[in-house]
Amino acid sequence: MEILVAVIAFAGAILAAIAAGVLIRRLRDEPEGWLIAWSAAAASLCLSLAAIAIGYLMGFGPATFKVFQVAGSLLAPLWLGVGLIQLLANRTPPKFLGWLFGLAVTVVSGVIMVVDPLIKSDGWAKSLPSSSVYWGIIPKNLLIGVHVIAVLIMLAAVVIAAVRWRSGDELDTDNLHATLVIAPSGIALVGAMRFAVPGIFTTALLVVAAAAVWYAVLRPLAPYEDDEEDDIEQPQHAPAGRRARQEPVPAAHHEMAPPPVEPRRPPSPGLGDLVAEYRAGDQNVDYAARMAPPVPETGPATGYVMNGRHGTGPQDFPPAPATGAIYPGAELFTPAQQPPPPPQPQPQQQAGTSRPSPSIFGLLTVFTLIDGSGEAFDRLADQTVEAVRRGEPDTLVYACHAVKSAPLQRIVYELYRDEVAYHDHQRQPHVERFVNERQAMVLATNIIELNVNAAKVVPLPTVMF
After folding, report:
1. Which of 30, 323, 343, 409 has the highest Cβ tally under 10 A?
2. Is the pTM above the cut of 0.85?
3. Rounded CA gap, 186 and 206, in Å?
4. 333 touches 375 (CB < 8 A)
5. Regarding predicted confidence, which is higher, 232 or 122?
């Protein structure tokens, strides 16, 4: 049994160390309070599990006992609770009080528990020692107080997250999800440390707490920080970061704001990037027209794509690549050398507005990547897009987007002439390679089928090397 517990503790220590390292690495891009607190909790769980593994292999002593107790019984529950405060608090005062309490208890209680002598110095064995047998009255009461406060914080966090979720948005859904993972794990950890529980169960609960931190932080979280236009000032007290909630716009700006839009239904988890980018760009600005090159006077008036040609009908203009790329064999001319364009028949004015073909089939796929796999995924996507451009004439649009507010998410937008063209696309060797090789890089995938009601498509600007 001692070997089994030691193996579980050693594996859990490795898991907690990896989780702490990944969280600390993520702090470089997202210096969030809850990330800092849960990084401290993961590091504490790593130390406590390492002490258990050593104790079950070589026997416990004063040093391994104190490391196990200070890290696992004091610091881990404390910083799990402080992280929930940082996650759910919308204003600065509660966050500041949470930091003040966590740092004060860590310094004061940690020094007391490390310096205070144990009331019993013998009787050590290769089994988890009970805290009530070795701690003096001051460390014992400190642990009781910290445990009570940590449990109250976690219970209150569950209630607050559930109340906000009932009338909230996708941010509140993610907060409730994380709280329901962290809070029960922390409460179970406190119970295992306070009461006489077999060592294998205490070790397992420490491992579960480390896994809960990893899951709650590294699972797909939607970014909810909408990009603001330059003419709208953000309140100074607004929270920052990718999980920041957007504060209401002051009344002085209501006249300048665009007309209200129809309320949105909450999207499924993992689509927060798509919603954020759409809302940020929904300002009646024609971004495609601003990016497009100048169009001759005889050029298309609407810019929509039909049957691979630009214009008001398939007879108006010669074929042009949809991506704006220059195909091999094309000749480049300076403005002075540019030959005059051939005469074009004047397009006939048609009544009404031209609309895309109802048979066009579209897809929007949101990929949430595993940390560290972005460059490999982008290389694979570039190769796939190039193969689609060269060999799929019935694929109208095939574009891979990166999301500025979420480095681990990619969006692939696809339009096909019809569903037959889509099924032909799926059977292509380069598509099968894309599907197979991306599996090791993708954490979650969300797919949306689209109907095209209206569209404007122009050739994209390209970079010449």
Report:
1. 409
2. no
3. 9
4. no
5. 122
